[in-house]
């Protein structure tokens, strides 16, 4: 099952996070060990919360305006270093969401690539857009990409079943 990489992408609000959370829940129920991170907004800050990695939550960026954020480059570097040091071999690496901010930190990019490459499998959400780092992830070996913009809400349940079947081997 090495290097089975599932990427879920789509426009903002299409259901990437909801899909990944449902997959994580089902994988946990099936006995898979999940490691990675989840990002979310809390009081004008973009926060990274770890999944089964013993670290404190990290503020990745602060909102500067409704459409602009100021990245915390020290936090991005720290996140990358944590990921680089973590052992993922017997885990499914899950990450929600990888986007523009990750392209600002070499350490974070290296940590994400390490996490994907060293895990038994990876299920990640990628922000839609063209950034060199996102392209690099999409071009890794053994990638299956699901663009939720191309699927109805009803069809997404079939995507989840397909992903779970693939991971069960």
Task: Give your account of this protein's structure.
The protein has 169 residues and is α/β, with parallel strands linked by helices. The chain contains 5 helices and 8 strands; from the N terminus they run E-H-E-E-E-E-H-E-H-E-H-E-H. The chain has helices at 16-29, 73-85, 106-118, 132-138, 153-168, and strands at 4-10, 34-42, 45-51, 58-65, 68-71, 92-98, 121-127, 143-147. Strands 5-4-3-2-6-7-1-8 form an 8-stranded mixed sheet, with helices on both faces. Helix 1 packs parallel to helix 5 and helix 2 (73-85) runs parallel beside helix 3. The longest helix has 16 residues, at 153-168.
Give a quick precis of the structure.
This protein has 169 residues and is of the alpha/beta class. The protein contains 5 helices and 8 strands. An 8-stranded mixed beta sheet has the order 5-4-3-2-6-7-1-8, with helices on both faces.
Task: Lay out the secondary structure.
Layout: E1 4-10, H1 16-29, E2 34-42, E3 45-51, E4 58-65, E5 68-71, H2 73-85, E6 92-98, H3 106-118, E7 121-127, H4 132-138, E8 143-147, H5 153-168
Parallel strand pairs: 1-7, 1-8, 2-6, 6-7
Antiparallel strand pairs: 2-3, 3-4, 4-5
Can you write the helix and strand succession as a string?
EHEEEEHEHEHEH
Mean pLDDT: 92
Number of strands: 8
Q: What is the overall number of helices? A: 5
**Strand-residue fraction?**
25-35%
Q: How widely separated are the two ends?
A: 7 Å
Unreliable stretches = none
Q: What would you report as the Rg, rounded to the nearest angstrom?
A: 15 Å
What is the helix content?
25-40%
| Spatial arrangement of strands, main beta sheet | 5-4-3-2-6-7-1-8
The biggest sheet amounts to: 8 strands, mixed
The structure class reads: alpha/beta
General form: globular
């Amino acid at each position: 099952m090495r290097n089975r990489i599932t990427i879920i992408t789509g426009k903002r609000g299409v259901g990437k996070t909801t899909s990944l959370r449902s997959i994580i829940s089902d994988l946990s129920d099936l006995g898979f060990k999940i490691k990675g991170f989840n990002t979310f907004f809390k009081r004008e800050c973009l926060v990274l919360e770890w999944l089964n990695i013993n670290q404190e939550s990290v503020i990745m960026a602060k909102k500067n305006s409704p459409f602009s954020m100021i990245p915390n480059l020290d936090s991005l570097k720290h996140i990358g270093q944590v990921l680089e040091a973590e052992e993922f071999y017997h885990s499914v690496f899950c990450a929600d969401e990888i986007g523009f901010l990750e392209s600002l930190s070499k350490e974070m990019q290296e940590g994400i690539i390490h996490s994907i490459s060293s895990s038994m499998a990876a299920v990640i959400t990628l922000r839609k857009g063209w950034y060199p780092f996102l392209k690099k992830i999409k071009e890794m070996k053994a990638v299956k990409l699901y663009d939720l913009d191309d699927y109805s809400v009803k069809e997404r349940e079939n995507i989840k079943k397909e992903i779970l079947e693939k991971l069960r081997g």
